[in-house]
Amino acid sequence: MTNIIFYRKSGDIIGFQSKGHAGHGMRGTDVVCASVSALIINTINSIEKLTHDKFDENINDRRAIIEFQIDGAVSNESELFFKSLELGLTEIARDYPGNVSIKYRDY
Known about the structure:
Elements: E1 2-9, E2 12-19, H1 31-50, E3 54-60, E4 65-71, H2 76-95, E5 100-106
Parallel strand pairs: 1-5
Antiparallel strand pairs: 1-2, 2-4, 3-4
Helix pairs in contact: 1-2
C-alpha cells in the first residue's frame, strides 16, 4: 500500500509524504507504483526547476519514503503543481483503493 499524506496550511497544500509500495504487481512491473512515482517526481522536479520556492525534501529509496515541503510561502505555480498532483493521485486512489490511500494533515 502506498500511503500519501498531503500537508495543508489554511486549506492549501504545502507538501506531502509518500510511503510504501503500491503492491499491485511485482517490484519493477507495478504500474500503480510507477504511476504514483512519476506524478510525485514530476511535481518535485517542476517546483525545483520552474519556481523560486525553497523546499525541504527527503527521499529514502530503501524504505520507499518521499517527503517534500515548501519552506515559507507557496507560490501560485507551486500551488498549481500541488493541485495537479492531488488530482492525479486521487484518480489513482479511486481506481486502486487497495493500493493507494490519501489522507490530509492540517497545520
